[in-house]
């Protein structure tokens, strides 16, 4: 329930999701249960977001009195779901595709188990909240960690005093990386899965999958059930290492995608093709979705970590309904997710100076931002060119063809001077240009559509990196703070060294992901440009052939 409040102090926002408030400003708080010291609400300028609960007082109207209560206590729970619109916090899209979401009725007899964190993930950024740097930020409040915490790497003799970011919407917090770096993730008795990072010539890289494979997606088929009441599209999915096809719907892909987001917090998980409210069974949409699912699958199978995920293997190989349910539930109960996933990483012994790592990450951040801008620009230009191919170019060539046809017709109106050969040649020229117009209209499906598909994939991958980089930035901040506290005698050096060691794990993982991105980028963009140029050459050759045949008609006159 919304309540009115008044700002006691001025607060200037510096991070995504926060809003500025001025002293004595009237505010609206959407829920008076704060989330670890933060309220979500609206200021007098209509801006919506979060601000510190201790900076405001709630105005309560009581009968026969004008009493105000100062609300400072950080009530509420971490997993609380704020559903207020128009804030920078994003939630899953509406279930447009009935085909994609039908309570898993035909393949599971209970609802999918999803943690609260899944429901607050932004699919536009690898499931994390927008970038929210906290280093040296005076507006970020810290609280001491409980002295009784159990450290996963070192025993705490004095108790850690490294502060925690009270903005629990931060991706650094929600991903679990903060807890991992501070040593709050208990070691598991047995870790069944491990992912290794090697040192390559250009730095850390994921160790390749020892059993690489590919996977085809073919034959999208319209299916029905419940005597035709329910309609959906099924795809034949065939992994190369088994050769046995399985049949999957979009909702199965979506389930896998959400498990990947939940588990791999430091990996850029490719986005699935978008949903569509109408026209889901139109041929063009089905073909477009198939093309983009193929690209998604190619990225999955090429990734050394994602391709080895047990849930992915289950998705690709399980054809039995009963076994599918068991494997699905097992994946949903996976404990090695988020912060615990960091425990599965085996990093090189080579020393890396954290300042050098930070510089390398900053360089990649600048590169990714520029590449994202360039991909957006090329997407805009290519989309505009598609529009011209389908409309403007076709119409212009048709107009030119009609004009030639008109000339030919005019030449026939004075029979004694008509020249049938010339008239036929001019008339044929008109039809040639009409055909060329149709060639232009057909061409995008051979080149530009495929370019836009690849650009869309990379838009999604690039959109993930700001939040992943933010995890490393948050880890760097904890290392610097712990070292300062150790120098001041407020923390054991062993504990500060433990934080630094765990920060190295985060750093190696990010660098390995950066390396894989560059490796795939070189392969994908080489293939994209070669395919585009080959199709362009073939297209203009077809145009030239038609023009040459038409030209020869004039040689015989």
From TrEMBL:
One GO CC term on file: plasma membrane
A GO molecular-function annotation: phosphatidylinositol binding
Stretches assigned to the SH3 domain: 1-61
Positions of region (Disordered): 76-95, 107-160
Places the protein is found: Cytoplasmic vesicle membrane
Comp. bias (Basic and acidic residues): 109-121
Residues of the PX domain: 213-323
Biased composition, class Polar residues, residue ranges: 149-158
Main location: membrane
Keyword Cell membrane in annotation: no
Membrane topology: Peripheral membrane protein
Keywords on record: Cell cycle, Cell division, Cytoplasmic vesicle, Endocytosis, Membrane, Mitosis, Protein transport, SH3 domain, Transport
Domain of life: Eukaryota
Listed GO biological process terms: cleavage furrow formation; endocytosis; endosomal transport; mitotic cell cycle; plasma membrane tubulation; protein transport
Residues that coordinate or bind a 1,2-diacyl-sn-glycero-3-phospho-(1D-myo-inositol-4,5-bisphosphate): 249, 251, 289
InterPro entries in alphabetical order: AH/BAR_dom_sf, PX_dom, PX_dom_sf, SH3-like_dom_sf, SH3_domain, Snx9_fam, Sorting_nexin_WASP-bd-dom
Protein family (similarity comment): Belongs to the sorting nexin family.
Protein name, per record: Sorting nexin
Organism the protein comes from: Haplochromis burtoni (Burton's mouthbrooder)
């Amino acid at each position: 329930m919304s309540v009115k409040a008044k700002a006691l102090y001025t607060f200037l926002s510096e991070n995504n999701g926060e809003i500025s408030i001025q002293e004595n400003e009237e505010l609206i708080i959407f829920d008076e249960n704060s989330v670890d010291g933060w309220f979500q609400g609206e200021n007098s300028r209509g801006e919506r977001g979060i601000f510190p609960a201790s900076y405001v007082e709630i105005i309560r109207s009581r009968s026969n009195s004008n009493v105000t209560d100062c609300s400072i206590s950080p009530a509420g729970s971490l997993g609380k779901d704020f559903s207020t619109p128009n804030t920078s916090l994003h939630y899953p899209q509406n279930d447009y595709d009935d085909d994609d979401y039908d309570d898993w009725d035909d393949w599971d007899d209970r609802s999918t188990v999803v943690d609260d964190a899944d429901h607050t993930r932004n699919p536009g950024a690898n499931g994390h909240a927008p970038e929210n740097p906290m280093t040296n930020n005076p507006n970020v409040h810290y609280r001491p960690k409980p002295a009784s915490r159990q450290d996963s790497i070192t025993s705490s003799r004095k108790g850690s005093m490294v502060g925690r970011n009270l903005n629990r919407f931060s991706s650094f917090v929600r991903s679990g990386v903060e807890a991992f770096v501070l040593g709050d993730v208990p070691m598991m008795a047995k870790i069944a899965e491990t992912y290794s990072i090697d040192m390559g010539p250009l730095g850390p890289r994921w160790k390749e999958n020892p059993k690489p494979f590919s996977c085809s997606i073919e034959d999208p088929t319209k299916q029905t059930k419940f005597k035709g009441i329910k309609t959906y599209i099924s795809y034949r999915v065939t992994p190369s290492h088994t050769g046995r096809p399985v049949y999957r719907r979009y909702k199965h892909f979506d389930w896998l995608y959400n498990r990947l987001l939940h588990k791999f917090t430091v990996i850029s998980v490719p986005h699935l093709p978008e949903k569509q409210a109408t026209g889901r069974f139109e041929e063009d949409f089905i073909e477009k979705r198939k093309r983009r699912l193929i690209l998604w699958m190619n990225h999955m199978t090429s990734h050394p970590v994602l391709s080895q995920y047990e849930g992915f293997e289950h998705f690709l190989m399980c054809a039995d309904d009963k076994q599918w349910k068991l494997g699905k539930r097992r994946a949903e109960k996976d404990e090695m997710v988020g912060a615990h996933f960091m425990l599965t990483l085996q990093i090189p012994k080579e020393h890396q100076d954290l300042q050098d790592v930070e510089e390398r990450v900053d360089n990649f951040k600048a590169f990714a931002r520029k590449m994202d801008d360039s991909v957006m620009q090329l997407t805009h230009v290519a989309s505009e060119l598609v529009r011209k191919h389908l409309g403007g170019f076709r119409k212009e060539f048709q107009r030119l063809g009609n004009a030639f046809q008109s000339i030919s017709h005019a030449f026939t109106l004075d029979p004694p001077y008509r020249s049938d050969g010339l008239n036929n040649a001019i008339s044929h020229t008109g039809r040639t240009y009409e055909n060329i117009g149709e060639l232009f209209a057909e061409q995008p499906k051979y080149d530009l559509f495929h370019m836009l598909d690849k650009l869309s994939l990379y838009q999604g991958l690039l959109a993930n990196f700001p939040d992943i980089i933010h995890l490393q930035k948050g880890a760097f901040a904890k290392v610097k703070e712990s070292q300062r506290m150790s120098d001041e005698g407020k923390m054991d050096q062993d504990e500060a060294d433990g934080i630094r060691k765990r920060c190295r794990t985060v750093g190696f993982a990010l660098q390995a992901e950066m390396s894989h991105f560059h490796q795939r980028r070189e392969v994908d963009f080489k293939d994209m440009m070669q395919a585009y140029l080959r199709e362009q050459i073939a297209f203009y050759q077809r145009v030239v052939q038609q023009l040459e045949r038409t030209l020869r008609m004039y040689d015989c006159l």
